[in-house]
Amino acid sequence: GQEKLSCNPKKENGSHVVLCELGNPMKAGAQITVDMELSVSGLEDMGDAITFQLQLWSKNSPSSASAWVTVPVEAEAVMELRGNSLPATTVLPTSWHRVEGSRRLEDHGIKVEHVYQLHNKGPSTVSGVTLRLAIPSQLEGHILLYLLELGTEGGMSCTPPPNLNAEQV
């Protein structure tokens, strides 16, 4: 029959040990199959596998059998990129023209702020994420968007594009 095991975690000589009682008394020659599901946290920086030592022993025998089991670590995280523009819609008057060489912001167009948020929806944590965001700044040789500044929050670092505030507005 199928029974749930009673397992108890404990620390032993600096190692984490999970002790499971399989049966007492167990009849001579008995064969059992054990399926174990372990939930281990903090494996983000462990590489692509983790190794466990499994050991089977009897209280009636001084010797025990052990085996090393390597389990692949697969982290799963769903990333979501959200973004919006403030204002959401911008229309330049047909009579408007850019003033060459001006350092005034309003002579280069209407200010539009683009805000992007990268969210980890889990279940795992992530590190070392790279987001590449391409913003078209020119169209057919004409300035489409004048990239004025780039800011970040939350401990991220960004590499500014080469044409960022090229005219020092």
From TrEMBL:
BP GO annotations: angiogenesis; cell adhesion mediated by integrin; cell-cell adhesion; cell-matrix adhesion; integrin-mediated signaling pathway
Integrin alpha third immunoglobulin-like domain ranges (all copies): 80-167
Protein location: Membrane
Listed InterPro entries: Integrin_alpha_Ig-like_2, Integrin_alpha_Ig-like_3, Integrin_dom_sf
GO molecular function per UniProt: integrin binding
Highest taxon, organism lineage: Eukaryota
Entry keyword set: Glycoprotein, Integrin, Membrane
One Pfam family hit: Integrin_A_Ig_3
Domain Integrin alpha second immunoglobulin-like: 3-73
Gene Ontology CC annotations of this record: external side of plasma membrane; integrin complex
Presence of the UniProt keyword DNA damage in the record: no
Keyword Disulfide bond: no
Membrane topology designation: Single-pass type I membrane protein
Gene3D superfamilies registered for this protein in UniProt: ntegrin, alpha v. Chain A, domain 3, ntegrin, alpha v. Chain A, domain 4
Protein name per Swiss-Prot or TrEMBL: ITA2B protein
Protein's organism: Nyctiprogne leucopyga
Gene transcribed to yield this protein: Itga2b_1
